[in-house]
Amino acid sequence: MEASKVYYTNLRTTMKSNRQQKLAKLIKAAGIENINFDRRYTAIKMHFGEPGNLAYLRPNYAKTVVDIVRELGGRPFLTDCNTLYIGGRKNALDHLNSAYENGFSPFSTGCHVIIGDGLKGTDEALVPVDGGEHVKEAKIGQAIMDADIFISLNHFKGHEFTGFGGALKNIGMGCGSRAGKMEMHNAGKPFVKERKCVGCALCTKNCAHDAITITDKKASIDHNKCVGCGRCIGACPQDAIREASDESNDILNKKIAEYSKAVLDGRPHFHISLVIDVAPFCDCHPDNDLSVIPDVGMFASFDPVALDVACADAVNAQPVTPGSLLDESDHEGHDHFSAISPETNWMVCIDHAVKLGLGSKEYELIEVK
């Protein structure tokens, strides 16, 4: 397959060119103006950040993308879908409150925020997945599928189940309705290492499905109720709850690729990733750890697969931040993400996306100065 073009700019600024201006120059150089936006609804998919987390992308970046879409005649809106787990984004009302709290409003971004799968996460479109190995019909937020054009604006960071969260994670998992997220997660469910469990019950408070009970000061998980969202893993202060096997993570990664296929097929799409504040885990946590590497820059491409590979390569080329979680791990190998989350293999999602025709692993990196 022919190498895809991925455009990159660093984060150096001058009195005449700030980061927003550099982002605008980058995405125009990458060819966003070749899309016909004339009066077409444009979904800009991003993560508004769980309240308490400060690593999410600031609304200023969203405004830059919104302004360009408007300049080109489009009708943009910012969007994300509701979460499975308890938190600040589990329904549209809480989700909007969280977005506003983190600065995403029509006044700061220049467009409205629409929660893609509606009030309770049940507004969904059933979308066939051509070539799907695990998913034949994806459940995607209806508002996202109603859009004529799709843009992903991604915060590139680590992830405890997928290795990293980039374009494909933002698209595939992020655009799934509540039922869609259940479908993606249910191949792998967490388990309790009893010798480490102290019965603090923080896991029960973070389970939206009453799947965890405490007996004799030990937690147990009912897999008939568990949806595999993994929220309990992040909540446990003793690291007593662990993710499922490698095979289950592999299946999750493949399903994310298949959901991405459903979202992107049949309409123009464009992708932007910012490799900044690279926390070891997802922005879905109500906190963020120290960035594991120095900030790198901004990337853009029509190819989400090549974009993810280019960003991963850029991260792996960086030195480790002293005192970070990565610094405390066995990071002697070439891959920072597997050092942080050893039971993940992000290449599974990439390879499956290539197989589905979503893009190429081969890329030509073009610097925009």
Query: Which regions are unreliable across 5 or more consecutive residues at pLDDT < 50?
Result: none
Strand content: 15-25%
What's the gyration radius in Å? 20 Å
- SSE pattern: EHEHEHHEEEHEEEHHEHEEHEHEEHHHHE
E-strand count: 16
Summed up, the helix count is: 14
- Helix content class: 25-40%
Give the structural class.
alpha/beta
Distance between the termini: 28 Å
Tell me the overall shape: globular
Order of strands across the biggest sheet? 4-3-2-7-14-15-1-16
Nearest-integer average pLDDT: 94
Task: Give the biggest sheet.
Answer: 8 strands, mixed
Structure commentary:
The chain has helices at about 20-30, 60-70, 90-100, 105-110, 140-145, 165-170, 180-185, 200-205, 230-235, 245-265, 305-315, 325-330, 335-340, 345-355; strands at about 5-10, 40-45, 75-80, 115, 125-130, 135-140, 150-155, 155-160, 165, 190, 210-215, 220, 240, 270-275, 295-300, 365. It is an alpha/beta fold. It has an eight-stranded mixed sheet, sandwiched between helices. Helix 1 packs across helix 2 (about 60-70) and helix 10 (about 245-265) crosses helix 14 (about 345-355). About 55% of the residues are buried.
